[in-house]
Design a protein that fits this description.
By secondary structure, the chain is of the alpha/beta class. It is built from 11 helices and 8 strands. Strands 3-2-1-4-5-6-7-8 form an 8-stranded mixed beta sheet, sandwiched between helices. Helix 5 links the parallel strand 4 and strand 5. The longest helix has 25 residues.
Length: 320
């Protein structure tokens, strides 16, 4: 009996590792591009996919700006990246995406201190409730609106730097999202409610906003040397759900632990979109597993919705 149990356990363990080596294994970014003399901004770069992305860009020689809210964690991450890569050009700059004032301050500081911008990686994201400093739903405000304003404020510097890219980390969760413009206009949020399930739905809606934003941005960048991409990083172990409730956490964490992969794997499609040569023609497209997905849902490439979201976002940010 004991032998049979041991054999069964061995089969389970073997099957688990086989699953991670095959079905759950994500492709790697194969670009050998060096980035000496280039400057990159990575939002949310003190942990997870953002930190791994920043580490890779620094290893390639880029000047990397860690755009983060938490100074202590970001400065610790910067020191770790410098030690790991030997690149001393890794710098923390304060950015709270839940505050439009902070976004404007970051952009002003960056434009005063940095002469070029070659890569803007809109990576930061969250899935917790509450309101931003400006009264927007937290998930919408951080995942979409803060990044929208940041990108718009830095567009001229991106254009002036020659061939440059904007990469926005979305999610496959966009497939479950929708953009309710009535709710946005009335409540300054993508949906109502603060339960764990409702927050997850808000997260899905915000990820659809990411994809629509990139779709519209590509149209507005036509004729320039700036290209843009949105992406699905995959099922990745990150801290994005660290604020969810106890029971939701109890259900989700074992699944994440067993079947999600590490942040290094999760950064690969971000790096592909940022670095791979010859994908300029795919500007505005949505990538997954280092490949553009041409058959994404029509709601993610709806010209009218993307234009309306852009104009509403301009209004919210006081740009219109």
């Amino acid at each position: 009996m004991i032998l049979e149990l041991l054999l069964f356990a061995a089969l389970l363990v073997g099957g688990y590792f086989l699953l991670h080596m095959t079905f759950l294994k994500l492709p790697r970014c194969k670009s050998a591009v060096k980035l000496h003399g280039k400057t990159a901004i990575v939002t949310g770069a003190n942990t997870g996919i953002g930190k791994t992305t920043a580490m890779d860009l620094a290893r390639r020689g880029a000047r990397v700006i860690l755009a983060c809210r938490d100074r202590q964690r970001a400065e610790a991450a910067a020191q770790e990246i410098i030690q790991e890569t030997g690149n001393s050009q890794v710098i923390f700059m304060q950015l709270d995406l839940a505050s439009l004032k902070s976004v404007r301050s970051f952009a002003d500081n960056f434009l005063r201190s940095e002469s070029r911008l070659d890569l803007l990686i809109n990576n930061a994201g969250l899935m917790n409730g509450g309101k931003t400093e400006d009264g927007f739903g937290m998930i919408f405000g951080v995942n979409h609106l803060g990044h929208f304003l940041l990108t718009v404020l830095l567009l001229e510097r991106l254009k002036a730097s020659g061939r440059s890219r904007v990469v926005t980390v979305a999610s496959k969760a966009y497939e479950m999202g929708k953009v309710d413009f009535n709710c946005l206009t009335t409540h300054r949020d993508v949906a109502l409610g603060e339960s764990n399930l409702q927050l997850f739905h808000k997260y899905c809606h915000s990820k659809l906003c990411n994809v629509l934003f990139t779709h519209e941005l590509a149209k507005r960048l036509q004729g320039s040397d700036v290209t843009c991409y949105s992406l699905n990083p995959g099922a990745i172990k990150t801290e994005i759900g660290r604020y969810v409730g106890f029971w939701w956490s109890l259900i989700i964490k074992p699944i994440v632990f067993l079947f999600f992969v590490d942040s290094e794997s999760g950064a690969q499609t971000t790096l592909h979109c940022a670095l791979e040569q010859g994908i300029e023609h795919a500007s505005g497209q949505y990538f997954s597993c280092c490949t553009p997905k041409l058959n994404i849902e029509s709601k993610a490439t709806d010209d009218a919705a993307s234009k309306k979201l852009w104009e509403l976002s301009e209004s919210f940010c006081g740009l219109a």
